[in-house]
Structures are given as C-alpha cells and as structure tokens.
Amino acid sequence: MTFATFLGRRAVHSIFVLLGLSILIFIIARIMPGDPARMAVGARAPQWVVDNLREQMHLTEPLYVQYYYWLRDALRGDFGISLVTRRPVADDIKEFFPATLELALLAGLINGAGGIILGAISAWQKDTWVDNVLRVISYLGVVTPSFVFAVLFLLLFGMALNWMPTMGRISPEIARPTALTGLLTVDSLLAGNIPAFFDALWHLILPAVALSLGGMSQEARITRSTMADNLNKDYVAAERSLGIPGSVIMRSFLLKPSLIPTVSILGLDFAATLGNAFLVELVFNWPGISRYGMNAMLRKDLNAISAVILILGVVFIITNIGVDIIVARLDPRIQLGAGRSE
Amino acid sequence: MISAATLASANRREDLRRSWYKFSRNRLSIVGLFTVLLVTLLAIFAPVVAPYPQHASAFVDFANASRSPSGTYPFGTDVVGRDIMSRVFYGFRFSLSMGVVVLCLVVPPGVMLGLVAGYYQGTWLDTVIMRTTDIFLAVPPLVLALAICSVLTPNLFNAMLAVSLMWWPWYCRLVYGLASTLRHEFFVVSAELIGASKLHILFREILPNCISPIFTKMSLDMGWVILIGSSLSFVGLGVQPPRPGLGTMVADGYRYLPDQWWIAVFPALAIVLVVLGFNLLGDGLRDMLGAEEV
User: Does the global pTM surpass 0.90?
Assistant: First the structure.
C-alpha cells in the first residue's frame, strides 16, 4: 500500500469514527434530565423566553433533525454559547486548547524519552540491583493514579520545599510573549524572550511530570522486555564476538528494533494522558481545555462538554495516524495499515 | 485397577499443582494474591475490623479533629474528627464493589460481541461491531466516563454505569482477536462440517479457548476500574460524601496539605495498594495461564 492510499483510507475511517463519536456525544447530551433551553436562560426567566429559545435551538423538532442542526453547526466550528463563560465555546477552546497541547506534548516527550532510557538501562543491567530498583519504581508508577502524583508533587515540591510554582502557566510579573502558536514556551523562544521561556517551562514541569509518570513507567516496562528479548538474539552475539563495544551495539543495532512496541503503546498512552489531564489540570489550576471541560462537566455546560470531547477525539485520531507512520518508518517490514484489524 | 474417575481427578490435582507452581515461582504474584485477599477481607469485615465503624458516614467529633497518626488513630483523623483508617477500610468496599459490578456488566456483552464479530469476520456484522468499538475507543475512556457521569446524577451507581459503557470495547477487541484466529482451527472447521449449530460453535468450541485471556484481563482490569472509579470520586462524580470513597477522601484531604498530610496521603496509598495488588495478581495469572494476548 502506498503512503497516499494509506492516508486516504485512514482519513475515510477517521471520518466515520468521528461521525459515530458525534452521535454518541449527541446522545449523551440528550440523556441529561432537564430542559437545555431552561438551563441556558436560568430558572427565573419567563416561560415565553424559554419557549422562544426552544424554537431557536430546534428542541421542538424530532431528534434526528436536532442532530442534523447540531452537526451542521459543529462542522462550521459553531458549538454554541458556553453556559459558564457566556462566550462562544469555539472562542473558549481557541483560548484554552494551546495550554493543554503544550502540557500534553511535554508530558508525551518525557513519557517517551524517559521510558525508553529507563527501559534501556533496565534491559542492559538486567537482573542487577539497578534493574530491580527501576522495575519496582516503574511498577509503582503504573499503578499510581496521576491525580495522586499531582497531589503529592503539589505537596512536596510546591508547598513543603517551595521550589516550584503550583499554579498557572507563567508568573504574573513576566510579560507574556505575543501569541503566535499559543504555546508559551515556543512563543517566548520565537520572540527571543529567554526569561519568559524559562519561567513558562518552570511552570510546565510539575504538571507535565505528574501527567507523564504513569505512561513513562509503562513505556519503560515494555522497552525493557522487548530489549531483553532482543539482547538474546543471535545477531547481538555475533556483533559481540566481532568485538563491537556494548554501547555501540545498544545504540546502533538494538534500539531501533526494540522501539516498535514502545511507540505503538505511546499512541494508546496518549489517550490516557489526555484523560488524566482532566484531573491534573484541575489540581494545578492549569488553564487548559481539560480544566475547562472538567468545569463544564461539573456545571452541566452541555455545549462546552460536547465540543471538548469532539476536539479530544480529533486529537487522538491524528496522534494515532502519526504513530502508525512512525512505526512503519522504524520497521520497513511493516506495511502501512497491515497491522490493523482490517 | 484404577477407575477413570480417580484418574481424572488425579490429573486435575496434578494440573492444579503445576499451575500453582508456575504462579508461585514469581514471588511478586504471591504478594499480589495476598494483597488482594487482605483488601477483600478488610472490605467484607469492615464493620468488625474497623476501629470506629460509626466514622464511615456523617459523624462529627470535633474534640479529636485533625489528630496526627497515633496509637488511637493509626492513620490520624480528618478535620471533623473521623478515623481515617476506618474510613479507608470502608472505602475498600466501594472500590471493590465498583470493580466487581463494572466487570459483571461489561464482560458478558463485550465477550459475546467479540465472539460474534470474530466468527463472522469479514461480514457486515464484523464491520458494524468493530467500527462501533472504534468510536468508543476514539476518546480517552476517563473523559467519556466523566461526561456521562456529569450529565447524570453524581453517585456510585451512575459512575459504575458510565465506566461500564466505556469498558466493553476492550473485551470485544480481545475476544475478536482470539475468535478470528480460532475460527480457522481444525476443531472449529470439523464442528462446522458435522453440522454443529452456530451457538454450539461459538460457546462450546471457541469460547472455552478464550477463557484464560479473559480471566487474566479481568484480574488486571479490577485494578484499572478501581483506579478510574477513584478518579471519578476525586472530582466529585463518584462516591458522594459523607460516604468514604477513596478518591473522595483524597479530594477532601488535599486542601489541608501539607500540614495535615495524613488526610489525603493514606487514602491515596490505599488506592495504590489495591491497584498494585490486582496488577501483580493479574501478571501472575498471565504467566500461569500463558495468556500473552492480554
């Protein structure tokens, strides 16, 4: 299969998944007890206002017609007005999404890089005390909920030691760089504003680490087991007998084939990261789309909830296509699309 | 002469002995087994073993509020004077019941759909079922569970319902993979040739060969479901106060960090302990049953 057909197929598949997801979200939004029109205007509004709004929101029409209008608006980027912020949901998302993207990207980076390095060390030192310590740590990392990490970090580094900031994206006394990408670290680098870059990074680290530890431990375990398997293969013995130093074998011959399962799992873990961001952003008061979504959920703000879930679905699907491409590049034997259940 | 029945039972005993040997070779599996047993017993006998069973609900004793851990209150007390240890024991009840109920709701439909989709691989049934799982798996499970919980009344039952709705696709996927390979095996083809009914093939030929991976996954999933449940409770969409959900207790306690650390830290450790226990047990079962697919 060529690259273009692969992308085309995945795109068609993704569109169907997203359509299905939109139906699912629509159903969730409609099972809520209560009248959306009444909730939008508040309990004290007169009945005729509610009736007018019901008409306007197409609530008087059959469900499939309602779905049609909802989807049509969503495709135009119109998710309605947020009941909490009283602004168009699309504007809210534009404002909050970059913060989550920045956090999730750094978490993903720590997750992948840390997991691979720790896993490689563990495999290389297999059955020594280093390996045992790393394995125990990674086991604990996998089973500890990310909100527990968040709370513990907040306690330890933020409050008890007072090393790190525990709130927001950047210190109030530092001028924000002009928003180009919305990612504060990138923007400040582009503007050549080094103090702002470090300040933003400093704010990012605690939540990103809290968010990434679970996934990182998972990656470490997977990398360790694949690498330990590969270490026993004949080609490694052959390279050793040729006198190639261990570190060279590790870097040049072992790392690439051992990374394939790790990278595949990274895609799945990204979903977990996006999900856990809902709790971590809440704990660190991180002004991202997840905290926005979480607050929307706690206040039953349906327009905002639907939009946030749909956006996360899109992000997740794009990530997984990306992961498939990377895996195919790592292993030329893997045909694009062949690893799927299709 | 030895009767066939005695022989069979001797064989079964031998199988059991071997399985136990495989399982117990890894000391961590034993640790997992004992952790799970301990937590289960504490949960069942919470009214007996908890030092202050009455503290599990709305109870107030301001004279003993915010006591640090001591002999009288091994895990300390919270801001209204309730014993944290008793509340953690009762918290295990909510966590375990969450895990059990969700798995009971999820496994039968997930397995059934996976069997059907795998057996009828390549037909429209396969397409419909597996594309539906794609939709559910396209969003982080925690996010959809949070969304469903949030539109319903927040309580433990709705949290169970929400997590169940998100969880069945995993069993469907697992069994689909197994069934789609098994359906080409000789014993399935022969059963088809002698005219066995579809029900017989699905449930008597294919399903028994999927049991080990399903079982292993259930043990691991007990941990994950409990973890998601505690996350829901943490944001107030699961177990409602004054009931002592472990996540609820962490959420209530973390406002009092760092001075009264014990209020949040012990329930948090309790969550880690339960999830760890089920994971170690699940890994042990995987080694024992040889279920690498999970």
Answer: no
